């Protein structure tokens, strides 16, 4: 034990959408916070390679923590996206049934949506489930804007800062970065995505394990100025949520993702067979894709918990470390709800967190080199079509 006094109140480990939303929330609720990100930029993990869909929670299982935080985020997020100038396509989603079994699933989904308080309608002409609140955003701009706004409100972001050791001190934690930098804090949030299990191990916490579940996507330019007006979701089966087709802010249509369980946390490649797997399903949903060659592809790695999901809480081994792990499939959507929940946990540790989230004082322009969906794939040298 040493007698350092904390130099910062809270360290957030990991600068994906979850860590950035937590940093935003803390900075706008009066907490002195620093974000430590191992890469040279934010949002290069799952947060930069997803579907960009802001889900309503219409199909989420009532009562689960994930559902609660998806719904909580929906109450907080719109005003923040608006104030930060993060682009959103309010496209709505459609699920068209193709069999009697699908029709039954649509009815069950409508009942589920009602239980979660989410607006849906059934289109009389074809029995499609319409979900007007589903939207698509730019997940990289969202991540960057949250962090930039936090910095404008007094937080700090440290890049190229891989957390390599965490030790207990009298009144907090001493965090060592791989290059020798040190931070002493009252509490730390482990939002390290795929590596959250390794960060937990730094305090001896072996209570959960994260593995990568790969999702591959193909990007299409639609001919003759055609555009995709809605998010097209398949009617889910018991086994899978399936392949969706969604519009991007730059006017493309993207089909995906797959769901391939891996061991290698650095395998960002697109498998050669993925194209046929995706297209077979996507063309059924959206026949305009028939015969088109994709202009690009990318893969994302979901930080999946082995036998667990939404592992959020104080570590058993050091209760000043709050794990926010296994945020596998809905982190973009739920991030601000997760951050609000984490603020409650910080209060249990004695960190003073203001009741109200102050509105951001500045809209922050984010800088991007090309469309977001190319960025992580390029960074990871993934194969592109
Ligand atoms: C194929 C796919 C489709 C998806 N579609 C959607 C969707 O449509 N809507 C939706 O809401 N969600 C979607 N998701 C889920 C969403 O992308 C994730 O839930 C979310 O990105 C998880 O964010 P995160 O911040 O926890 O993890 P990450 O984005 O992985 O961020 C973790 C960060 O921690 C950093 N890090 C790791 N180790 C350390 C360390 N030791 N020190 C410091 N930093 C460290 C990493 O570099 C990384 O930047 C999808 C995911 C995938 C992969």
UniProtKB/TrEMBL annotation:
Residues 10-344 form the FAD dependent oxidoreductase domain. Transmembrane segments: none annotated. Pfam families: DAO. Signal peptide: none annotated. Coiled coil: none annotated. This is FAD-dependent oxidoreductase.
